[in-house]
Write a structure and sequence with these properties.
The chain is α/β, with parallel strands linked by helices and 423 residues long. Helices cover 35% and strands 17% of the residues.
């Protein structure tokens, strides 16, 4: 349906600014940094973080870290790497983007011996995208070693994965496809010396607990085991009690810094949500933005209409095939997308740097998802902004967000906007 284009005041008494502002796009999307906006649960006493050279790392992995232009370890790296290098079992509690992949990759790279002829390092990830990202990261940090890494997940043909497994020392996999290969007798995990369960809380939330346990039972009991998790809940701890040997707990807690992250909401009629979103994206100075919606249908609606307004938007949701998801991420990585429109499920496992704005087109039904959403901006000491577009039917959800997360969200003065044609 086409809506006639009109001039609309969303707030009384606001004079329209008829001069269109120039949109400035800062393309620092791919900053190479190991800093993180984290605050430890324990007191560091104000000590400055160590250098990577203070860890007992080989020259090869130090060179790989130097190649990535990482200067100082993040808090979770500083706390976890010494224990991981010592061979201890570790539970690392930290948020997405905190640098935990380097922490466990260091252990894998140091423990794996090339040309042994068996799989020695195994990482389980909850989603295909995260498995691919972890695989690329381990490959980056092992570039000065002679290792082969196989990435195993569903949605693609078996035969290329069979070939990759035969020569791999390290496997990064999703549980379903890996267990499928175990059942077919196409993969042997008896030589694994380092096992990582990445994003353990997400893994359990997605119902993979039985698969995870079945896979762990295929590995040696004396291996090193590392769990990473944004939240350390009862289910994660119970799993650790069954399969870990006297683990060391290290935690880094992400906190919303009001000096770095601005949170705001606009209370508007539902039929004007899209018009306001378009206005804000065009008028504010942004790098990469993410727009969160609660349903696939809304994701497609928002993406379509943002594109009609000349905004380089890309949708991604749970209904995408693997080929579609790969194509969407390729467009983003090539710098051809400024706005990702997604559902919470589709965003799981996507660790994206350089996000300056989060737009909650829909308030999440689950109040805990709010923190996952806004935690994707204001990283590495950069400023960020979380914008909530609040229609009448979501007031209850928004009240739960404020109550359950103890966050302060300021009410914004709704600007004058031009109502857009809706397709």
């Amino acid at each position: 349906m086409h809506v006639t284009e009109t001039q609309t005041y969303l707030s009384l008494g606001i004079e329209p600014d008829m001069k269109e502002k120039k949109r400035k796009i800062n393309k620092k999307r791919y900053q190479k940094t190991a800093f993180s906006c984290l605050h430890s649960i324990t007191n560091l006493g104000g000590n400055k973080m160590k250098s990577f050279t203070d860890f007992d790392l080989s020259n090869q992995i130090l060179k790989s870290i130097q190649d990535k232009d990482f200067e100082e370890p993040t808090e979770i790296q500083e706390k976890a790497i010494p224990h991981i290098i010592e061979g201890r079992d570790v539970i690392a509690g930290s948020a997405t983007g905190s640098g935990k992949t380097l922490a466990f990759a260091a252990g894998i790279v140091e423990n794996v011996k090339p040309e042994v002829g068996e799989i020695q390092g195994l990482v389980l990830a909850p989603t295909r995208e995260l498995a691919k990202q972890v695989s690329r990261a381990i490959d980056d940090f092992s570039r000065h070693h002679e290792y082969n890494i196989a990435t195993i997940h569903g949605g693609v043909a078996y035969e290329p994965q069979y070939r990759a497994i035969k020569k791999a020392e390290v496997v990064v996999a999703t549980p379903g496809r890996l267990l499928d290969l175990v059942g077919k007798g196409r993969i042997d995990l008896s030589g694994v010396n380092t096992f990582v369960l990445d994003e353990a809380d997400r893994m359990l939330d997605m119902g993979f607990i039985d698969d995870v346990e079945d896979i762990i039972k295929e590995t040696p009991s004396d291996k090193q085991t590392i769990f990473t998790s944004a939240t350390i809940r009862g289910e994660v701890m119970r799993l650790a009690e069954r399969y870990m040997n006297n683990p060391v707990d290290v935690f880094a807690e992400k906190r919303v810094d009001p000096n770095k992250l601005e949170q705001i909401y606009y209370d508007i009629p539902g039929h004007l949500k899209l018009s306001l979103l378009v206005h804000l994206i065009k008028e504010e100075e942004t790098d990469l933005s993410m727009v969160f919606c609660n349903t696939r249908r809304t994701v497609e609606f928002v993406e379509r209409n943002l594109k009609n307004q000349g905004i380089r938007a890309q949708a991604i949701h749970g209904g995408f095939s693997q080929k579609q998801r790969d194509k969407a991420m390729e467009k983003f990585e090539a710098g051809n997308v400024d706005v990702l429109v997604c559902t919470d499920v589709a965003a799981r496992g996507l660790d994206i740097d350089g996000i300056s704005h989060i737009y909650n087109y829909d308030i999440p039904n689950d109040s805990k998802q709010y923190m996952h959403r806004i935690g994707r901006t204001a990283r590495a000491g950069e400023e960020g902004k979380a914008v909530n577009i609040l229609a009448k039917d979501q007031h209850d959800d928004f009240r739960r967000v404020l109550r359950d997360n103890s966050v302060k969200v300021e009410k914004g003065e709704t600007p004058y906007v031009k109502k857009v044609k809706i397709n």
